[in-house]
Specification:
The chain is of the alpha/beta class and 386 residues long. The protein is built from 15 helices and 14 strands.
């Protein structure tokens, strides 16, 4: 039985529902950010992040900073791109547009390779683009929160290493880490950036990143200084290395309470083999998508291989809009998200299913509650389930 105050079940693509123990960690007493106890906790958290992302390469480096996932874009653009560098941004929704905008702020030249809504750029298209121009970076949104489209990172990374081996592979994993498997070393990824409030199951406020040794060397070989102070690897790299080595260090004050919460969340994730976690996540996703299909509803991501395991973007029946459906869901104690993709925002809703809502569904019942509420709400809104 949860000790949390009664509240609607939050099933958006982040923030998500949090485990009691994680929230209790947020109430940790105040302590110095350079105390031996906190330094040990921070160091263990960085090491556990390596395990979740499956990297044992000592040349790779985890970063955990106070900020949102968006800060990860700035860290990539400020440290790994220089003015005039070409960057290839694979587009599967809203967040590719934003990442491209971020690169332009740092005077890198972003080229977007776009797919139709609900799809992802195909590997042959990516190959052609890589052969046409030399790109310093290629970015891919592993799961685009606006569309629920899942990108195929492993095959993409292998293609990049084959066709354009100098190009750094950057994965925006804000809506995937913790819900989708990532094998950082095996797949040859150079950067994974994410945030705390989604699949990792920790309250919002931490920007999280893993950078390969190749990425660190690319930073060190810059011809110009990083165009950011707070986001600069120059400032943060020694701090993260020292914390992971259990040595107190300071550049900017971290959030001890959030670090404690993330430490608890990662400890819970690693209690079971990662393969079991991802299998359970996929099984829950397939069950939900099947039930949603039985209601006569369709997904934005039409092909199974394009469908994320931690969320589902659902087309509403003709004539219905999110403002007509979401309040009905809320009355039944379930919170879904409205559409986010600017071209179709009034035509669909988004259902987040990750973290404890999946891993503890047998005791919590979040997923069944959501399905029942969705069917009833659509019926009340004037759409009789088929």
């Amino acid at each position: 039985m949860s000790t949390q105050q009664a509240h609607p079940t939050l099933l958006i693509p982040g923030p998500i529902e949090f485990d009691d123990a994680v929230l209790q960690s947020m109430s940790h007493y105040s302590e110095s950010h350079v105390s031996p106890a906190f330094v040990a906790t921070f160091g263990e958290t960085l090491t556990m992040l390596r395990k979740v992302l499956q990297t044992t390469d000592t040349a790779s480096q985890p970063f955990i900073l106070s900020g949102s996932g968006t800060l990860g874009w700035d860290m990539v653009a400020a440290n790994l791109a220089e003015p005039g560098d070409d960057v290839l941004v694979l587009h599967t929704g809203y967040f590719a547009d934003s990442f491209a905008d971020c690169f332009e702020v740092y005077e890198a030249k972003a080229t977007q390779l776009k797919a139709p809504i609900g799809d992802r750029p195909q590997l042959d298209e990516v190959e052609r683009a890589l052969k046409e121009k030399k790109y310093k970076l290629i970015t891919v949104t592993h799961v685009d929160t606006s569309t629920g489209v899942l990108s195929e990172v492993e095959a993409l990374s292998k293609l990049v290493h084959k066709v354009s081996p100098e190009t750094l592979v950057v994965v925006d994993g804000v809506c995937s880490v913790g819900s989708e498997e990532i094998k950082f070393d095996e797949w040859g990824i150079d950067v994974v950036l994410t945030a705390s409030q989604k699949g990792l199951g920790c309250p919002a406020g931490l920007s999280i990143m893993m950078v390969s040794g190749r990425g660190i060397e690319a930073f060190k070989a810059r011809k110009t200084p990083p165009r950011s102070y707070f986001a600069s690897f120059k400032n943060w790299l020694p701090i993260m290395q020292n914390y992971e080595g259990k040595k107190a260090s300071y550049f900017a004050t971290p959030s001890p309470q959030l670090i404690h919460a993330l430490h608890t969340a990662l400890t819970q994730i690693l209690k079971r083999p990662l393969s079991e976690r991802f299998e359970k996540q996929k099984a829950a996703s397939q069950m939900l998508k099947s039930k949603i299909g039985e209601m006569g509803l369709k997904q934005l991501a039409t092909r199974p291989e394009n469908q994320a395991n931690g969320m589902t973007a659902i087309w509403l029946p003709e004539g219905l809009t999110p403002p007509e459906v979401l309040p009905l869901l809320s009355k039944k104690g379930v919170v879904f998200a409205a559409g986010l993709h600017k071209e179709i925002a009034q035509k669909y809703i988004r259902f987040g299913h990750m973290g404890v809502s999946v891993m503890e569904n047998e005791t919590r019942g979040d997923l069944d509650k959501a399905l029942n509420a969705l069917g009833e709400s659509l019926a009340e809104a004037g759409n009789k389930p088929r």
